[in-house]
Amino acid sequence: MSNGDVVLDIQNQEHLSTLTPANQNPTQEHVPTDEDCQTSLDQSLISTLQNEIEKSTEEFDSRKKITKIQWIPRIMKKEEFRDYYRQRAMKIGPLRPYSEDKLKLKLAAQYIRNSDKTSNELLVSIKKEIETLSTCFHNEVLKYNEVHDVGTDSYNRWLRYLARMLLVDGCSILQFIYCRVWDKLKELQIDNGQASMIEQDLFLMQNQIPFQVLEILMDQLPRVGAFSRTVLQKSIDNFIGMNLMTPENVLKRSYLDFFKEKHPVHLLDILRSGLLYGFDTSNIGRSRDRRSRDPSSKNDSNREYFCNIQQLKAAGIKMESSGTSCLGDVTFTSFGWFRARLKLPPLIVNDATGRKLWNLIAYEMCPENYNSDYGVTSYVSLLDSLIDNEEDVKELRSARILRNQLSTDKEVVELFNEIGYNTVSDQAYHQVKQRIQRHCDSLWPTTQFLIVQFKQEYFRNPWSFIALLGSIAVLALTATQTYFTINPTK
Q1: Cα(122)–Cα(326) distance, rounded to whole angstroms?
Q2: Nearest CA to 59 among 135, 153, 147?
Q3: pLDDT tens digits, residue range 130-149?
Q4: Closest Cα to residue 395, out of 385, 384, 406, 409?
Q5: Cα torsion at 292, 298, 299, 302 (round to 10°)?
Q6: Does residue 92 contact residue 267 with C-beta atoms inside 8 Å?
Q7: At 292, phi and psi to the nearest 5?
Q8: How far apart, in Å, do the first and last CA atoms of the chain sit?
Q9: Angle between helix 353-364 and 375-386 (nearest 10)
Q10: Mapping DSSP to helix (H, G, I), strand (E, B) and coil, where does residue 330 land?
Q11: Rounded distance, CA 318 to CA 331, Å?
Q12: pTM given for the model
């Protein structure tokens, strides 16, 4: 051993002696105290929390860029709503047990035949983007399909399975939309009843695939021709317009620019955007009042209740159609004490309306739908507050706001009361409701309300009027008899 090594060894021994107590053997094992255990537990908890914070931050940053395809919120997935979210004719996407049914295969085969591409060419185009497409689904979808870790064999099998599924589903959706719009479903032996069920299934929240899949498939088509990219885009545009639940004579818009700018999540997302398209949904429920420009006042800032249609009518408020297809186009205009006007967008109520509105509300209520402004939810909640009975529906029909295609007005009442009762209360129409409330609180509408209530109570039929006259006659005779009893004539 060299002199340097000896010096280093001596210095190391001296350093160890300073770290070891004099009465303790250096080789003796250190026994942790209770304080050491508590400190270790503290550090473990802090480390775990820090890891979760970093993990949740990464997930939030990635999720807020795109709304993922996910299951219906648990709060809405109740047995009484099963008919609203259960598919009837065609299963789409990985959120349901997948099956290559004959209907989808027939539609997909027809699409591939029309595209002049081979099945393998279209499958390859899907596989090129499959990593990106897989991120469009919520992580729970992976667990549902028994995929636990990215990079494993199960994940690779999942990607190949997903690519095959998206090919069939995407081709069948595009072919159905094309045939539905251009009235070619009879060529595939699909009758109107089956077509109606398929059409409704394409707007179920748990029956969706990324719209990017449809874009990838359309990109493989020529730009012009009888079955081209332009024709398919126009078909989707018309298909959304057919499902807006608004009359044909109201103002509608083209959504082709929306496809390019907004990057829709899926067909249900496009339908929702179509119902709110062209308006600032952050300011839903604009209102105008010629008596006051102040949106709030000290008297009603902390109090708000809302009336049904009959009560609004009694307060001198006339209902009118806005004439547009946007559910956010709700305006209230007061013309002073004597009259006011509430404009609402027209809506068709048929067998499909309940399912569409319910799934749109479920989509808006998803916890990870960061872009939601509850536009549809707010509109349904507003209608629920306006409709209490069949007379309310009758008034909305007379104003051409509701186009009832159900059997009775009672079914419309039950529909909106059922859906609206289970929605989250939203303040999107707070300003409109507040101004309506101030109008109803004024002197003239209150007097007018009492007069209208009196007319509705006693003049609704001849027997009520006769009973009223009889009561007045009895009161008059009783008063006369009482007077002459107290003041007998001499």
Answers
A1: 37
A2: 135
A3: 999 999 998 887 776 666 66
A4: 409
A5: 120
A6: no
A7: -150, 135
A8: 152
A9: 130
A10: coil
A11: 12
A12: 0.75
